[in-house]
Amino acid sequence: MQYLSVKSVSHRYDIGVSTVWLRVKQGKLPQPVKVHGTSTRWRLEDLEKFEQKQVHEA
Questions:
Q1: Which residues make Cβ contacts (< 8 Å) with residue 8, sequence separation at least 6?
Q2: In the chain, at which end, N or C, are there fewer CB atoms within 10 A of the end residue's CB?
Q3: pLDDT of residue 56
């Protein structure tokens, strides 16, 4: 399973890091998970599912 940092997510969607957190709070991006107790990461699989859902709703 591949995990992405907040910086990687911001690059993926061409948005700022603070916008990533805002969109998570608004429910417009999937929730991240804690890995190794201190690191927050997004599962690539969760982001891909989110993207597919967005395509089907458009």
A1: 42
A2: C
A3: 87
